[in-house]
Amino acid sequence: MEHSSTVQQLFDREAIAGVIRAYCYHFDRNEPDDVAALFAPEAVVDYGPEAAVLTGQEEIRKGVATGLKTIFAATSHHVSNIDIRFESAGRASSISYLYAWHRYHSGAPDGELWAQYHHEFARSADGWKITRLVLKAAGTKDFHRATMHPIGRN
Predict the structure, then answer these.
(1) How many whole angstroms separate alpha carbon 44 and alpha carbon 34?
(2) What is the mean pLDDT of residues 121-128?
């Protein structure tokens, strides 16, 4: 790999990691418009078998807004171990580890989730955008869903 492409990839890695962090930040601040803006127009979000798959920015915005308004009184998302792989100069995928705390409007005990975000990204004129997000769980405690996509470990 030549020097200029190596430097570009370093910039791209940070930009992609910034998108992942921005998703957590805007979700926790109850900013569904800003969450949706991180996605490509045709993006797909799959939060698990008990949730409808969301397709397109507007459906993602509505789904996130509804969850934040009706389910979550507060959330705190923490990502780490962000592993980014480039398929080309304009496409990438990543797996990042997630710890997420949830306070519910219902008064149910606070829910905890240990999971992974599986992302796909595409470069756009506005920077890197999420084209696919799949949430896979390693474990939960008092979480509002009984069934999640597994991380692949038996």
Answers:
(1) 16
(2) 97
- Judged against a pLDDT cut of 90, whether residue 4 lies above it is answered with no
Structure tokens at 112: 């905890």
* Paired sense of beta strands 127-141 and 39-46, if any: parallel
pLDDT of the residue at 2 = 66
Sign of the alpha-carbon torsion through 75, 26, 117, 47: positive
* Residues in Cβ contact with 147 at an 8 Å cutoff, skipping those fewer than 6 apart: 48, 49, 50
Domains of the chain as residue ranges with CATH: 3-150 (3.10.450.50)
| C-alpha span between 153 and 33 (Å, rounded) | 34
Q: Are 77 and 100 in contact (CB under 8 A)?
A: yes
pLDDT tens digits along 37-48: 999 999 999 999
User: 2 phi and psi, to 5 degrees?
Assistant: -75, 160
Length of the chain: 154
Kind plus residue range of the DSSP H or E element containing 69: helix 57-70
Tokens of 109: 């005990």
pTM tops 0.90, yes or no: yes
